Amino acid sequence: MNKIVVIGGGVAGLTAGIYAQKSGYKSIIVEKHNVLGGQLTGWNRRGYHIDNCLHWLTGTNKNSPFYKTWLETGVLEGVGVYEPETLYTYEENGKSLSLSRDLTKLKSDMLKLSPNDERETKSFIDAVKTVSGIMGTGGITHDRNLSIKEGIKAFPKLLKYLSLSTGKLAKKFDNEVIRGFICGLLTENFSSIALLVVVATFTSGNGDLPVGGSFKAAERLIEKYLSVGGAVESGKEVVKINIENGRAYSVELSDGSEIYGDAFVVTVDPAAFFGGISDLEMPRELKRKYEGGRYERFSAFQCAFSCDVSALPRKGDFIIRPPIPFKDIFSSEYLVMREFSHEKSFAPEGKTVLQTMVVLDERRSREFVRLKNNAKLYYEHKIRLANYIKKCVCDAYPELKKSLELIDCWTPATYKRYTATEIGSFMSFAFGGGILPLKSSLKVRGTKNVVLASQWLKAPGGLPIAAECGKKAVEYLVRADKKKTAPTRSLSKRKLGFSE
Ligand SMILES: Cc1cc2nc3c(=O)[nH]c(=O)nc-3n(C[C@H](O)[C@H](O)[C@H](O)COP(=O)(O)OP(=O)(O)OC[C@H]3O[C@@H](n4cnc5c(N)ncnc54)[C@H](O)[C@@H]3O)c2cc1C
User: Fold this and answer.
1) Is the CB of residue 14 below 6 angstroms from any atom belonging to ligand 1?
2) How far does the centroid of ligand 1 lie from the alpha carbon of residue 29, in Å?
3) Which of 63-72, 240-249, 287-296, 346-355 has the lowest mean pLDDT?
């Protein structure tokens, strides 16, 4: 027998499944929802399509390492990408700053807004250029690892940012628009290195958008998995993993059935796996991150509105800072808006979808999850908040007042319900200044054939990290298997070393 059972059918699970099949293994993905794709998804409401995920996809530059992965997994196979001129715009008191595709333009826009901030602006742009040369973010001209010498040279330019959160970095600038630009996308509590990575990725043409959005991208991923012979058990939840003498041998599903396997890849929220599906202990390193302090979990409150395309104040993503009591309600000061006029099929002619997102910290995310136990209160609360968001949007952009209508709103409890993350997380940990987000081990103590493959292994998660974790988990299993088999046999022909 040579079967790998993958728990969870999101990007990590589907990627694990694809590479397992390509490596000559049989695999089966068990997914609790009846649609695969996990967070990479979208849904239809009242004649509109709501896109749950993609703001940008790291790896769209053909010279970046991730591009190959996205081709191999079907995500970017046979599809074009939108190359928007800006990733997002921050707006305050009639002034704005956009993250332009052209880094030189970003620099001159920052200098125009605030000549006083010249020193900090130059240092920021210099750091972006340095990041473009490392971490696989740079694409065409820079996509390579730095040599040791280059690394030593680059380090001082990044040192300052390593210790700063976005909030602290923002305080170094006089200009309020630049400050909002720095904090608006990731909030003020993230490491400023994360912001440098976002800016470097986008300005290197490595963070564009696949045409058709998240749901279509997930469909291509699923198709690829099925085309390489993968099997799926969907609409059934894994409720238990059975382990004997340190080896897992089966999973029990919510309908009472059991699936046997030789190795198990876990892509679900570790908080749900450890102490839930299994009695195993969460690896110490991961547990420390879950306990908070330097790492934090988060979720979001989101709404989708319909509106007239002609009334849109801006293209793409834009961010504002609504007045009090916004921050007291949501824990973040920033309201992120996204319009979808580039996707004609998402709305009837002349209309489009405007989605809003406010990041919630762990405490507020848990409150939503708890409130869900009382359906009436939960519903009333989320509609009240959605109306408040609508007011914030209309106060900032009165031209939207006439056509803006709520289509849907969703909360951390929605994510918990659909993807079983403990507090409704959709990425992994946020990490603040002074932290290098090192990867946690995929090994699970107490078993030899259960490996972790979820985005939770590396902060802050996201699609590339989920895919990488899925791929690496399979590579680990293949390596472990190889050790047990004769070196002369080819990978695809040899028998697997896992026990029957
Ligand atoms: C609003 C939003 C915007 C985002 N924007 C971006 C972006 O622009 N770029 C980017 O890179 N990323 C973005 N992300 C993050 C990205 O979607 C996630 O990082 C990624 O999809 C996570 O994949 P995963 O496979 O690790 O986890 P998941 O997608 O959560 O998959 C886990 C799967 O396991 C299933 N499952 C859980 N428990 C069980 C069980 N007991 N039995 C069986 N199945 C189970 C779940 O249903 C789910 O399908 C965004 C996410 C959201 C929600």
Assistant:
1) no
2) 15
3) 287-296
